Structure formats: structure tokens, C-alpha cells
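Go through this pair.

…
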Amino acid sequence: MIDEMKSKIYELRKLGYGYKKIAKELSLTPSAVRYVCNKMSDDELLNGRCENCGIKIKSIKGKKKKRFCSDQCRW
């Protein structure tokens, strides 16, 4: 797979897109997208920012990605 395509997959995955949505957007199969995503570093996917205040947060592997740093920001 071309490096350009991999970088697009990485960008879309960081934005929270799922395998099927990325595959549809880039005209690939979901299994190809899943393969590339599994090769990604876990740290890249687990780090993010709070949607409300912008503080850096880290999600737990195997769980849903955190969107907010605290209950106050979520409310």
C-alpha cells in the first residue's frame, strides 16, 4: 500500500472514524484498513485532547477512546 494512503488512514483514524467508514471513503476493503490500523503504534491512538478544554488525555487500551478529561467537561 502506498505511504500516502497509509497516512490518510492514520489521519482519519485519529479523527475517530471506524474501519468501514475509512474503507468507504478511500475505496478500500475494511480488512485492508484494519490491517494498517493494527500496525499503527498504540500510543498514537490512545493519546488525544479533551473536546471541551483541550487538555491532553490518554485512553485505556481495549476501551472506548476518551473524549473528555472529567465529568465537569462532559457535562
